[in-house]
Specification:
By secondary structure, the protein is an all-alpha fold. Helix content is 77%, strand content 0%. The longest helix has 30 residues.
Amino acid sequence: MLQRLRDYFFQPKLRTADALRDFVSSQASYLAQRTSLEFSRNTFAYSHQYMMYQDSFLDEMRKCRWESFAALVEDMLVAVEGKVRPPEAKDAENVAAALAGMARAILERYERPAHRPGGWDDVLTRIAARLAQARLAPPKAPNEIAAVAAGRLYVLMPVHSDNPKKDRELVDGAVRFGFAGFAAKLFDALEPEPVRADLLARAAG
């Protein structure tokens, strides 16, 4: 418990691929849960406590959290790629491939959600393609990267109000704000050289 609290307030340095994997997983999980819960609470208002006991809503909430988690893992790994990208084209290709493998390790670390009996292959293909494309262009700012997940999370929310414009603004603001916090922690804690070397070793192995 104390270790988790220390790690939350004082993020340890990220020097290995495994440490980076755990960091991305925990950050994506936290932001996915916070966004879906706060948005649903605000939308339902006084009926939120009632809805939280409805099986149909809880099923939709679980689906939302899992898919939001995957979308945020994708955006977060794109941000990581921009920080650990090697100058050599072949090495950059291998690092992107290793990060795609990290996405698989993150998503397949848990029991498959009920709504995904076939697994995450479609999402993993999408993540690999995006990382491969990202390495060919200058790294983007965190706010720009997060726009992708923000759009996806809006669609995934288990409930919407009768004001789509406001809904989009709320989800977009929550995701971008949370992603900015993730990026600040990442940029402060990440030690690119040892992580890059670890990723390249895994790609070679």
